[in-house]
Write a structure and sequence with these properties.
Blueprint (H helix, E strand, L loop, with lengths): L6 H5 L4 H14 L5 E2 L11 H12 L12 H15 L8 E4 L1 H13 L5 E6 L3 H9 L3 E6 L10 H7 L4 E7 L11 H12 L4 E5 L22 E5 L12 E4 L5 H11 L5 H7 L5 H28 L12 E5 L7 H12 L1 E2 L1 E2 L11 E5 L4 H22 L1
Parallel strand pairs: 1-10, 3-4, 3-5, 5-6, 6-7
Antiparallel strand pairs: 2-8, 7-8, 9-12, 11-12
């Protein structure tokens, strides 16, 4: 008898890059030197002070559940970070610690989206955002955006795409896969556009801290009622610890706490204790050195790819991605990625994973490898383009 699984599970699309990653890992196991530019994970291991704090927490027996909202000391530390970095006075009671940024998104989607209702999302964008909405029986209304909007939603886009089923918008600044930011003025204008329609504003600030030559503004500087998703994975380098947070309006906290109690009980306790070390001066100094390294990588890879013929119309100011137009080479991003993986052993991500708008014409490079490895990758890509053009003739 055939199994009958839920319609929602069938609607969740797989990551196309996972097939490429599996092949990359097989090539690596076969002895090939694969340069991984496909996965959005920093190559740096977690900073030593954070690891030491986690080890100390385990030794001290901090292995039990915490409160659903998280350790009070960690919520206070995050509030202190907002005061230091943004000049904001955020009540720690408004902060919920979650299992990764994904846990924060799950809470926000569960709270704000009824079946059949939707948020506006930029296309291209991070794919899990639309999948989480489908999981709660809502939907994502994808809004095509391009270089002219710096791949971000605008008040005009909100006005033209808003309808009776719209309940809010999810923004990302810096954005994945494009690395673009929204200015304080742009965040304010979007907040006004949504409030005029009774909509919720949710902002992914997961890549805050990883900006180059500019500091990212938090939406909380202009809208105290916005929902903010953040994570310890990117700037703080704690991907495998699975820890994030959500800042919510005071009126939403009780309902979010109830959801947290039921959905996951609490975030990992040892990770929470380890994260207390994130805000110590010695840790922040390490993280700032890493930010500078990412900036150097961007400043090398961006002009190198442009010189090879990749179209990168907007210089990314944050995250660690370059979203490149491959129209000069064709319109099948997946085949393009396969070519470079098989022949040059360089892995990067097809645009198909980030939406539908001109997805076949784009790929994403993650500059999460050392500068020498990026230099090797550029040499291989240059060589691979000659083979690609020859095969196309």
């Amino acid at each position: 008898m055939a199994q009958s699984y839920s319609a929602r599970s069938r609607a969740i699309e797989p990551f196309h890059v996972m097939a490429l990653l599996a092949r990359a890992n097989q090539l690596q196991a076969d002895g090939h030197d694969v340069i991984h530019l496909e996965i959005g994970e920093p190559d740096f291991t977690t900073a030593a002070p954070i690891v030491a704090a986690g080890q100390a927490a385990l030794a001290a027996g901090h292995t039990r559940y915490t409160a659903a909202r998280g350790l009070p000391a960690l919520r206070e530390a995050i509030a202190g970070f907002y005061a230091q970095r943004y000049g904001l006075d955020i009540d720690p009671q408004r902060i919920l610690i979650t299992p990764g940024g994904s846990g924060a998104l799950l809470l926000a989607a569960s709270l704000l989206v009824d079946p059949g209702r939707h948020w506006l999302l930029a296309d291209p964008g991070y794919p899990c955002n639309r999948h989480f909405l489908r999981l709660v029986e809502g939907a994502a209304q994808l809004v095509p955006v391009g270089p002219q909007e710096r791949y971000q939603l605008t008040p005009q886009a909100v006005a033209s795409h808003w309808n009776a089923d719209s309940v809010g918008a999810l923004l990302a600044s810096p954005a994945n896969p494009t690395g673009t930011l929204l200015t304080r003025a742009e965040l304010s204008a979007l907040s006004v556009a949504l409030k005029a329609r009774g909509g919720h504003l949710v902002v992914d600030e997961i890549y805050h801290g990883l900006t180059y030559g500019v500091e990212a503004s938090s939406v909380l500087e202009v809208d105290d009622e916005a929902f903010v998703l953040n994570s310890f994975s990117k700037y703080f380098g704690m991907t495998g610890w699975r820890l994030g947070w959500l800042v919510a309006p005071p009126a939403a906290v009780a309902d979010l706490e109830k959801l947290a109690q039921n959905l996951y009980i609490s975030a990992p306790s040892m990770a929470q204790h380890a994260a207390l070390a994130c805000f110590e001066p010695q840790t922040l100094a390490i993280l700032e050195e890493r930010r500078a390294a990412f900036g150097q990588r961007r400043d090398f890879l961006l002009p190198a790819l442009r010189e090879l013929g990749f179209g990168i119309a907007v210089e990314p100011q944050g995250a660690f991605y370059l979203y490149a137009d491959i129209s000069a080479f064709g319109n099948d991003a997946f085949a393009f990625c396969q070519h470079f993986l098989e022949h040059e052993h360089v892995a990067f991500t097809p645009g198909l994973d980030f939406g539908r708008h001109q997805a076949g014409h784009h790929v994403r490079f993650a500059y999460t490898q050392s500068l020498p490895r990026l230099q090797q990758a550029v040499e291989r890509i240059a060589r691979g383009l000659k083979r690609w053009r020859a095969d196309a003739v």
